[in-house]
Amino acid sequence: MPDKYKQRMARKKAHIDVRIEEANIDKGIIVLLTGNGKGKSSSALGMVCRALGHDMQIAIVKFLKGVQDTGEDAFLAQQPNVRTTCMKTGFTWDTQDREYDTQKACETWAVAEQYLKDASIDLVVIDELTYMINYKYLDEEKILNALKERPKKQHVVVTGRAASKALIEIADTVSILKDEKHAFRANIKAQKGIDI
Amino acid sequence: MPDKYKQRMARKKAHIDVRIEEANIDKGIIVLLTGNGKGKSSSALGMVCRALGHDMQIAIVKFLKGVQDTGEDAFLAQQPNVRTTCMKTGFTWDTQDREYDTQKACETWAVAEQYLKDASIDLVVIDELTYMINYKYLDEEKILNALKERPKKQHVVVTGRAASKALIEIADTVSILKDEKHAFRANIKAQKGIDI
C-alpha cells in the first residue's frame, strides 16, 4: 500500500515550492492592518521586532495614542535603531477640540512625511493613521502621494480601524481584524503586556 | 451657538470613562489570533515587546516554524527575559512524515505544559498551535485543561489559522484576521522585517 499521506504532502510541497520560486519580486511593501479587532498595533510592533533582528532602521509615528505610559513605550525607548514620534493628544474625546487635534495631526504628519522621504529608514510604522483620514484631520491625497513616492525598498505598516478604499488599494498586504471577542466587554481591564 | 463637536465628544468621553471604570477585573487572559490574514504571529510578538517593556517573564513555544533563520529569532535570542522553544520541523509538507511530526508536536507541547504550570512566567505565547489540534497531532482536551488550570495571573497568546470552536470559547479576546490581500499573491517574496 502506498503511503498516501506522504504522497499528498509531497504534491503539496511541490506546489508550494513552485509558488515560492515564482514570488521573486523584491521591494518595499505597504502592510495595512484594519478592522475593529485587537492586534493591529501589536502586529506592527511585532514587525518592528523582526526588523530589529535584521539590524534595520525603524521610524514609528503614532497618531492619537500617547497619554499613558505603556510597556511598548518603555520597550521602544531602549531600542537605538528606533525613532518614535507621537501625537500625544490621546483620543478625540479626550481633547474635545477639533482645531487643536487637526493642528497636532498636521504636525505629526509632517514628521511622517520626512521619514517617507528618507531612504536610510527601512521600516516606517504609521499607527492609527486611518482615523486622521476619516476625521478629515489630514488630506488623504497627500498621504497617498507620500506613500507612492517613498524610497523603493522602504516598508510601511499602517494601522487603524475602518481603512478607506484608497488605502486598501495602495497597500500590498491587507488584513482585516474582526473583533470576535474582547476581554474588555467582559469587564476585564487593559492588561500589562497585552494591551498596554 | 453651542459647540456641538465639544458636546458630542464630552458625552462620548463620559460614556467611555464609565465603561473603563466598570472594566475592573484584573486577571491573566487568553488572546487568540486566528484567520488566514497576515499578522497573527506578528501580533503575538508585539505583545511580547509590551511585556518586555514591563520587565515581565516570557515563554514562547513555536509549532511548525523554525527551519529558516529569521529576524524574529535573532531579536528574541537577544532578550534575557524570553525563553523560546521551537518544534523546528517546518511545515507538514516539508517533513512528509506524520508519525515524526506527531512525536515532535508532543515533545514541544510537553514544554508548553511546563510553562503553563509556572507562575513565574507572566506571558506564554503558543504560536501556530491550532494546526496541531486540527491535524490531530495533539489532543485538544489536554490543551484546554492546561489552559484552564494555568496560574491566574498568567497571560497566554495563541496563534494559527482555523481555530476550533473550543479554543474560541476558552479565549477572552479573539481576533479573526481576514486575508483581504497578500503581497505573496502578487509574486512579492517574503520580506525581511515584515515576514521573516
Give a short overview.
2 copies of one chain form a homodimer. By secondary structure, chain A is α/β, with parallel strands linked by helices.
Provide tags for this entry.
alpha/beta, 196 residues, 8 helices, 6-stranded parallel beta sheet, Rossmann fold, globular, homodimer
Structural overview:
2 copies of one chain form a homodimer. With 196 residues, chain A is of the alpha/beta class. Chain A has one domain (36-186): P-loop containing nucleotide triphosphate hydrolases (Rossmann fold, 3-Layer(aba) Sandwich), CATH 3.40.50.300. In chain A, 42% of the residues lie in helices and 17% in strands. Chain A contains 8 helices and 6 strands. Chain A has a 6-stranded parallel β-sheet with strand order 3-2-4-5-1-6, with helices on both faces. The N and C termini of chain A lie far apart (56 Å). At the A-B interface, helix 1, helix 2, helix 3, helix 4 and strand 6 of A face helix 1, helix 2, helix 3, helix 4 and strand 6 of B. Chains A, B: One of its GO terms (cellular component) is cytoplasm. Chains A, B: InterPro entries: CblAdoTrfase_CobA (IPR003724), P-loop_NTPase (IPR027417). Chains A, B: Its EC number is 2.5.1.17.
